[in-house]
Structure formats: structure tokens, C-alpha cells
Amino acid sequence: MFDKQLTLKQAITIVTSTVTLCGGAWVDMKISVARQDTAISETERRLEETRRTEEEHYRELKQSNQAIYDKLIEIQVSLQNKQDRP
């Protein structure tokens, strides 16, 4: 017949296994969190790099637009001067 009482060795084995499983799960959780932190840091780095690139493109576009505007004003003045001459 099956004996329901545990021997001391069996009890220690169960406790040891439980602690090992919980410890392993804790380590796995810590590794997972570290990986997530690394992924988040990488994403934040990429976002910052993208933001800088976008700001640089915006500045270049603004300068280009200003140069085009200045050239259009120059053409307009030139045309106006030609029209003003008899």
C-alpha cells in the first residue's frame, strides 16, 4: 500500500527542487527583463537618431526653400526692372 508520509530525504528533495525551479524562473525572468531593457534602449537610441536626422533634413529643406525664395525674389525684381524700362 502507498505510504502517505514523506521521508526526510524526500521532503528535502521536494524543497530543493521547488527552490531550484523558482530560482531558475527568477533567473529567466531577470534575463528576459534585461533583454527587454536592451531592446528598449536600442529603440530609444534609434528614435533619437531618427529625430536628429529629421531635424537635419528639416534644416536642409528650410535652407533650400530660402535659397529658392531668394532666387524667385531676384527674378521678380529683374522682371520688374525690365518692365519699368521704356
Features:
single chain, 86 residues, mainly alpha, 0% strand
Could you describe the 3D structure shown?
The chain is an all-alpha fold. 90% of the residues lie in helices and 0% in strands.
Explain briefly what this protein structure is.
It is built from one helix and no strands.
Summed up, the helix count is: 1
Roughly what fraction of the amino acids lie in strands?
under 5%
Helical content class: over 70%
User: Shape from CA axes?
Assistant: rod-shaped
Mean pLDDT: 89
Total E-strand runs: 0
Query: What's the helix-strand series?
Result: H
Q: End-to-end distance, in Å?
A: 125 Å
* Main sheet record: none
Structural class: mainly alpha
Radius of gyration: 37 Å
Model regions low in confidence, pLDDT < 50 over at least 5 residues: none
